[in-house]
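User: Run a structure prediction on this.
Assistant: Running it now.
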Amino acid sequence: MHARAPRSEFRPGGKPLVAALLGVTCGASPLPFNVLPLMIGPIHADLGWSFALISAGVTVLGVIGALMAPLFGAAADHIGVRRVALWSLAAFGIGFGAFYFLPANPAGYIACWAALGLIAIGSSPVTWSRAISMWFDRRRGLALAIMLMGTSLSALIVPQIAQRAIEAGGWRAGFPALAVLPLLVALPVALLWFREPRPEERPPGVTDASGALWGLTLGQAVRSYRFWVLITSILLIAFAYGGAHIHMVQIVAMHGVTPKVAAGVMGLVAIGILSGRLIVGFLFDRLWAPGVAFPALLLPAFACLLLMGTGTSLTWLMLAGYLLGVAAGTEADVIAFLAAKYFGMAHFGRIYGMLYMPFGVGSAISPILYGAVRDATGRYDAMLMAAMLLFATGGALLLTLGRYPRSAEQGVS
């Protein structure tokens, strides 16, 4: 008699996965980072602020959001991820739309980004990934990759909407035009479909022999060398990538292309995130994930080399944009996948929130560093050279993580 084939995890988890995909697409993680690259130039021209100051908006958003991530993660563990994600998504949409009224002074500008950081992080993968990691075990890598495709969709869609809104009504008009996405697209679908699985719906790999969720406590995770390896790797890669993304239009424009063509290179970044994420997620389910991530994170180091100097052909610039996208896709997959694999699901929200902190802080500070180098030297080359080393080192650290544990006890080391 033939053994019964295991049921596809995509059948019960499909609707929550679609809702999470839209939540990531329209949430606080990708939207501001895909809008500001198109607004840096117009804001600089309109208000005369430095590139570093303008970049500081998403820096403040990212740092405060990163510091809030463990609190939102703990809330998701305690009261349920659905409540946290939906309320934060609604608050983010309303707050982002209100940015139309950003004050024309630096203090007010920074204060508005800070306020958004206090409420918006719950609409990021910190919450959505908890539910998806509980619906999927054998295909968790692919499911998380599909969910995190939202950042790719955002990078493809948001710059186009923002560019048209800016052309029609100036840079301020971009904010309410994009607030429609979380409020009228993601939120209704999430209200209908997004939830955690009930105990009887959980796949076997996320529970122990008694049927309870297995995993380390936050204290146990912090005492593991793997936790600190992940923290360091995530921070280094975030420092390398965050500013490159925000300043990509400006970096590419230095090679003599028009702003419209430079915006098109951002589309290649999105395609890189999309394709790299799917390939990496597929391989994560079949191979040792750190061994997949390391070569994937060497590719953007080559991209930084292509972006240095002036006069690089459009073909090479497009390749550089694509390879940087691969880095973003790989890092986001690494955080959620390895957090679940090495630390389990029992306290995933708290642990993932802590691991998200270096990602948020690094991604947030990086644009200021890129902007400061541009302001001081007139170019980005020094920062791009440093980013090459950061990508390679961050990827190599993952190779020290060792084999996946099979239980919470094995995970402590």
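Residues 48 and 300 are 32 Å apart (CA to CA).
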